[in-house]
Design goal:
By secondary structure, this protein is α/β, with parallel strands linked by helices. It has a single domain, classed as Rossmann fold, CATH 3.40.50.150. 39% of the residues lie in helices and 28% in strands. The site of S-adenosylmethionine (SAM) has 21 residues, from helix 2, helix 4, helix 5 and strand 4.
Length: 210
């Protein structure tokens, strides 16, 4: 841990504008893997990637890693044999760290709180880890993930504890179940940042219609 680590992490949760959040990740990008994995015991990418793999069990699937950050999820999927993975994030500095992992086909810079420039039904699966949390991406982004994932495909994501209760994710998830946009396959609470004592909801849905 560098002396800066707690401040860099805190800045990503306390950003009040997208510009502040991008600036926070810009400062953190080159230290992120070491700080999260080694210092905080970040297991979110491994648990979520394995959960998605359990549900789709299809290394030929075309997968989007939404809010890919430095590519920790892509690395794990790559290790599980997935060969067609795209990456998306709104931080150029996080994307450039992700590119160095050499596990992604296409890397997009995009804001998940806006409409995405990706065709309907483009992916077999979408995974989004660490991005549904304080000051990051709100529940309305679920609509876009459903739109770009084909019917029958899967969406796997984490929601950090605390934000889950505060940010309206649960009500949006239930509304989308009630309107037959997606069907819940699995939802469990697991360790997320083990050394920080933080848990998250790990969720997988199957897309019904969009
Ligand atoms: C905690 S990191 C998680 C990164 C990676 N998925 C992981 O598990 O290590 C959150 C990521 O979400 C990205 N992010 C935050 N808000 C975003 C938005 N509105 N649109 C796209 N990406 C966003 C950040 O740039 C950052 O890379």
């Amino acid at each position: 841990m560098t002396q800066q680590t707690p401040e860099l992490w805190k800045a990503t949760y306390e950003a009040t504008t997208p510009q502040e959040l991008i600036a926070a990740y810009s400062k953190w990008a080159h230290l992120y893997d070491n700080d999260t994995l080694d210092v905080m015991g970040y297991v979110g990418p491994k648990v979520a990637a394995e959960m998605l793999d359990y549900h789709i069990d299809s290394p030929t699937a075309k997968v989007l890693d939404a809010g890919c950050g430095t590519g920790l999820v892509g690395e794990i999927l790559d290790g599980l044999g997935y060969a067609s993975i795209d990456a998306m994030d709104f931080s150029a500095d996080m994307l450039s760290e992700a590119e160095k992992k050499s596990v992604y086909e296409t890397l997009y810079q995009a804001d998940m709180n806006e409409t995405l420039d990706i065709p309907d039904d483009h992916y077999d699966a979408t995974i989004c880890v660490g991005t549904f949390t304080f000051a990051h991406v709100g529940p309305d982004a679920f609509d876009e993930l459903v739109r770009i994932t084909r019917p029958g495909g899967h969406i796997c994501f984490t929601i950090r504890d605390g934000a889950y209760q505060e940010y309206g994710y649960r009500s949006k998830m239930l509304e989308m179940e009630a309107t037959n946009k997606w069907q819940l396959q699995e939802l469990r609470e697991e360790d997320y940042l083990v050394k920080e004592g933080v848990t998250a909801k790990f969720c997988t849905y199957q897309v019904l219609s969009n």
